[in-house]
Amino acid sequence: MQVQKEVRLKHPILILGLSAIVMTGCATAGLSGQGAVIRAKERVAPALVYIRPVKEVFTEGKREEVVVVGSGFIISADGYVVTNEHVAGESKLVRCVLYDKNELEADVVGVDPFTDIAVVKLKTDRKDLPHVKLGSSKTLEAGQVVLALGSPHGLARSVSQGIVSVTDRYLDDNDEMVSPFNNWIQTDAAINPGNSGGPLVNINGEVIGINTRKLGGADNVGFAIPIDIAKEVISQIIDHGRVIRSWLGISLQETTSKTNDPKQMGVIIGDVDPLGPAAEAKILPGDIMLSIDGKSTNARFVEDLPKVRKLMADLPVGKAVSIAVSRGGAPMDITLTTVEKSAYKGEEVEFKEWGFTASALTPVVVRTAQLSSNRGVLVSGAQATGIAAEARLQPGDIILKVDGKEIQDLADFRKTYQELVAAKKRLTLVDVKRGALNMYLIVKQGAEEKAKPDTATAGTPGDGHHE
Amino acid sequence: MSRAMFLVSVACLTLGIPAWAAGAVPAETVAPITPAVVAQQYDRIVPAICVITYSYEMTNPGSGEKSKNTNTALGLIVSSNGLVMARGHMNIENVEPFNIRVKVGRGGGEKEYSAKLLTKPDDVNVCFVQIEAKDNKQQTFPAVRFTRGKALKVGEPLLLVGMLGETLDYTPLAREARIGAILTEPRTTYVLDEPMLPMGFIGCPAIDGQGQLVGVMGYDLTPNEGGDLYVHSGYPLLFQSDLFAKYIDAPPTEKTENQPKEDSWLGIFTQPLTDDLAEYWNLDKTGGVVVATLVPGGPGEQGGLQRGDIIKAFNNVPIKTKQNRDVVGFTKLVRETPIGKPVPLKVLRNGQPTDVNVTLAGRPKSSKDAEEFEDQTFGLTVREITTDVRIRMNMPEDVKGVIVWRVKSGSWAALANIRPGVVILRFGDIPVANLAEFKVAIAKAAESQPSEVAVFARVGARTGFFRMMPRWESNVAK
Prior knowledge:
By secondary structure, chain A is mainly beta. Chain A folds into three domains: 1-243, Thrombin, subunit H (Beta Barrel); 246-340, Roll (Pdz3 Domain); 348-457, Pdz3 Domain. Chain A has eight helices and 30 strands. In chain A, strand 6 (103-112) and strand 7 form a beta hairpin. The longest helix of chain A has 14 residues, at 227-240. Residues 1-31 and 448-464 of chain A have low confidence and may be disordered. By secondary structure, chain B is mainly β. Chain B has four domains: 3-16 and 28-42 and 145-249, Beta Barrel (Thrombin, subunit H); 48-136, Thrombin, subunit H; 264-362, Pdz3 Domain, CATH 2.30.42; 367-474, Pdz3 Domain (Roll), CATH 2.30.42. Chain B is 13% helix and 34% strand. Chain B is built from eight helices and 27 strands. In chain B, the strands form five sheets. In chain B, strands 21, 22, 23, 24, 25, 26 and 27 form a seven-stranded antiparallel sheet that branches. A six-stranded antiparallel β-barrel of chain B has the order 1-2-3-6-5-4. In chain B, strands 7-8-9-12-11-10 form a six-stranded antiparallel barrel. Chain B is flat. Chain B starts with 34 loop residues before the first helix and ends in a 10-residue tail after the last strand. The interface between A and B is large, with 43 and 56 residues.
């Protein structure tokens, strides 16, 4: 449970910086430095794509579409392009400018927020597109020369150079960015907003990573997804349109979070989701997980955690698995059945007439809001004025009931909402949970715009009063 | 122009004489603040204005760290035995004044006295300090008298006598202001027509055009300052004399350390029964309070109140709350009802009148009064988890532990990344359900001196471990 300094790769943007002083004396490829760099660049650059998706974003209770810029690279002669999820996710229209400056549209094939990878397919009949060679990230060494290619700040066809700084950087999850299943390649090749989704390339011109993040407020601390992780995700997206993972409902911590003893095997179960399979199987926080179906799950340091998490995620969905744990020193075998890991982001919808947006609940939201079930929807934004605002619906509220009827999920709420709007029902009672408190809100439809709702004079609108 | 020229009509308004004895302008008219009024009242009021200097200890609500500083305030002598009134912000939730000195008189004739802080009124944001007699000799001070029961009008001018800053020797300063608005709920409150008052005017006397001293200027407390009982206007307010006259007649007792305020508590969160809610539920639009949340195990729940009940009468007092700001009236009613008293409630449950009897309990301790334990070894200061913290952090009742309030910089706890807000559930192998158990766990660790201690804790909604690695041999030096 460390405090992680946040590493952000803003929206559609990533990375490439110019290292002005290019030290390419590295003899990796046996060529003169500059010649090797140019050859490596030439192998990748023709497959480079400057991507401009039109993304759907939800802000302050409204759905909007914004153009973002990012990078990507063609991986097949028929036009599959790899980029970041934070570039191409939530977009219906993706414009791609190829290295020859021709512009094509692309369809989103699928995205995976957990690894921040997206695959789009160029709309073309061509079968001869230049495409990259995917290398391997397994054999990387810190110090080896790498190139980053992409569109920093929208400047297409840019190349920058650096070295691998660290091969297995662990980055903690935060609210907006997660990477549970991979460590990162850290590089000092300059990466900027717009580099997101572009290739990180070795001196042989093979893609070894996808440039994705950088450390804000730092110089040349950029992060790329290792290509070995990406390969599996890309092929799952092409095959299934998404990545299917299992969920056990536990959070892991490295054993050094509890003891420095190097003989301590396994991984610490730090947290058990009360609504997950592990809780049902009576796994407790503090248990030490030694193996899953006989495969050891050792994680002494944080860098060891992603591979254990991936081992769990790769279990077939709905399969009974045997987990060996140690509880207070006593070994136990626990059987539980995996369930499918739900989407990282809940679907989000704008409810225009009332002036707010809501999204489906995810296990994280359910946990944070301390809900006793998965039922309800999350208010993700509310406009400053409008029906929702007048009812004092606030971002973060969980809508539990409407007119006394329990809301099951987003689809259920949408149906209820549409009926209310169609019927122009004047007063609707909405039960929300706000933090630890429950409140009754009245939604008024069809009320003439009052000059000043009396609520404006209330001291703390919507707050509960504590007796 | 000599001031004396204007003294004629109001000559009897001297200190110590009730203002109403002056028999000035008829009450119906809004009297202007004429230069004569200014000059005359200035001379009348100034002797009663004194300068309070004090030290105070402030607790940072985030880190819990305490810091000390000094400040000054305008004091107004309100009783000839040395009772002085000052702005309420001298003594708010996280600010405790001490070493209070009062300087009376000016122009070479100043005298400084020490003074003691009296218990702060809980219904108006003013403070009282009592000048302590020197050498046990009873002294008489020049005190003002307030006019009571005066209703003011919007637009009515007021003469304020405040004071300049230290570099200008705290010289009294007269200025005019106007009543810009009158709030009627939860009590009559006059609002000035300007957004800010200079520091030296907070707590200053306000005189109307008839030369009557009608109140003092001040600000209400924000909710952060513990001000849920007041109107949080952010605008300077006139505290009319009726609000604090009782404290002048019968001064509060001397403030003692952490005097517990025994308020009653019902253990519910409520909303007003707005006309919209009443219409929705097909009820009379006559107000009430809706029980929105019941605190588990609280008197409300134990007495059988249910979520959605509408309280129409509390202890036979009808509740007619329709707006958020009116709820304070109900809150006050609850607070001031004796603890342990069985109270009949008339509630509407699913539209049907129902009688519910509750027995009020004492309000649970809030985090500011929570018991705390400072451990020097690991560098942790923890507190018991109070009901307000539990609600603020949305922490279920079954979470038992202690909450980290401060972490000493450079300590073993800081090295382990433990930070304020973390809830410790287990210390090493010892479950920690409360402060006493935490103390035991710390003591045991100090005795056995383990090379590492794993702390099982809750951060937000999740749990996890922190590992501390003490270096016991260096502890002596720490």
